Known about the structure:
Layout: H1 5-18, E1 23-24, H2 38-51, E2 55-58, E3 63-66, H3 68-75
Antiparallel strand pairs: 1-3, 2-3
Helix pairs in contact: 1-2
Amino acid sequence: MAMSVEEVEAAIIEKATKSPKPQLYIKDFYKCDADRKPREIKKIANALVTKGELMFWSSGSTTMYARPDRIQNEEG
């Protein structure tokens, strides 16, 4: 049975919170719901950015995703 959007959002937030690295590539979230296409996962992750649950982080060449509180702790 496919996961709901809310379940995928929760899985993405959990992965972003518990990951050893504070910044993650979009491909790191693909395993949160293997049944969804990568484009769908990206849309859900971008919606989480809009909601303030995630934020974009740029390395200069690549855009990554991160929890806002983890980035501030790492940089601060």
